[in-house]
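User: For my dataset I need records formatted as: sequence, then structure tokens, nothing else. Please produce one.
Assistant:
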Amino acid sequence: NPQKDAHYVSKVFDAQFPSRWGNLAWGGHGALALETRSGNTSRPDKTWSAWSPPQKPEKLGDGGSGHVASPPGRYLQIRAGFGGARTVLRDVTAYYQPQNQRPRVAEITVGDEATPKRVSSLAPNGKPRSPVVKLRWRVDNPDEDELIYRLSYREESETNWKPIGGADPLTRTEYEWNTESIPDGNYVVRVIASDERSNPREEALEHSLTSTPFLVDNR
């Protein structure tokens, strides 16, 4: 058993992303005093918060619980104080919610990857080619949320975006766009990625990217 006034300091916990801390729960008995501190460096330094006891602590039959008072951060450390020789700490659990990370559309490819800037009705061998244009995009999704995508287009000299596809957003990172009904010209495509299906509405994030101009030539 630890001596009176002894302390146990945990290893630094890495939440991987800036996080909001929730409840702290522990199992044990005796004169236990739990505290936490948080920061954004892997080793505690002067930028970390001071040690703070849990807010609204409650004693349970076999331990206790309370809300972590430390400010949001990526890292958390726990300290237990033992107020007597018969004090025992068996386990500690800290709950947290990582801050939502924004998805990012990193790249858009239009048509043939080898010649992405021109979409023509004639293939290189002179035979007619379908006006269907293959759109592909690459997305960085740091917290692996379920993402949806909305596509739109405009002529390079215009300012108003027009939707591509139906009313429902897309879930795949590619789309076959039939350009038969639009006039020939230089166009750009915009892809908007959103994580709204994985997060509350007020915390959902989105990101958009516009392609380089490309020529539609179906005539």
